[in-house]
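> run fold Protein root UVB sensitive/RUS domain-containing protein
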Amino acid sequence: MEGISEVAKSKQQLIIEEWNGSSSTKLFKTATIFASPSLSIHRSGSRFTHVWSRVLQAFVPEGFPGSVTPDYVPFQVWDSLQGLSTYIRTMLSTQALLSAIGVGEKSATVIGATFQWFLRDLTGMLGGVLFTFYQGSNLDSNAKMWRLVADLMNDLGMLMDLLSPLFPSAFAFVVCLGSLSRSFTGVASGATRAALTQHFALQNNAADISAKEGSQETMATMIGMALGMLLARITMGNPFAIWFSFLFLTMFHMYANYRAVRCLSLNSLNFQRSSILLQQFMETDQGNI
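> ok
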């Protein structure tokens, strides 16, 4: 919200100040207008600072940092890094998958490639429904654990795609396994993200946090895809370089996920946390009547 208020008026000069901010963020002066015979505008602070604050509004929640929990920033940093490594590896696995389907080969048929892609997607959809049926009720109470499981299954899915060209006779089976793994990732990651968003929200701003997280993920996706395309081009035709890059990025991805989950300080109780509290309560003799 931008407001313009009159702060001083003299007989010959009118001074108007422009302020930027909102009801939940700190206000700061962006410009001062001197309405006199020689109209002049003096902008407070550097133009870069003003532009940077505008850009930042697209990536952080309104009222940041007071509107989120203290563990929001470290979690988002590590989460963005793990997402970046995922998108880079996606380009390598997609390149291998398209090669296995037969893109660019004269012997490949359109209907054959279409059927294989359809079978892959169908397996993933069915897997997502079954996973939701069996584990959907446990995702809220064990958000940290399922967050790690989701990314581990995503790593497994990309590994299956990268392995698919090595087993042409079992191609459909391998890619269906990969799609099944990623279907678990889609369900678990989306559900745990919703639970964590509620945890971060201190001012009933879960929707704003979710929207800004989407902007952060979009930026990480674009950077990751660009770097992935560059890496795919550099490693093209060199299996050793492809596998080395993939395994190195996978290890970094697992480490970043571990650090992201370790940053979280959830204040809700599940079975494990309740057991720890009850045990501590009994060991300190506070359970005696």
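The first strand starts at residue 2 and ends at 9.
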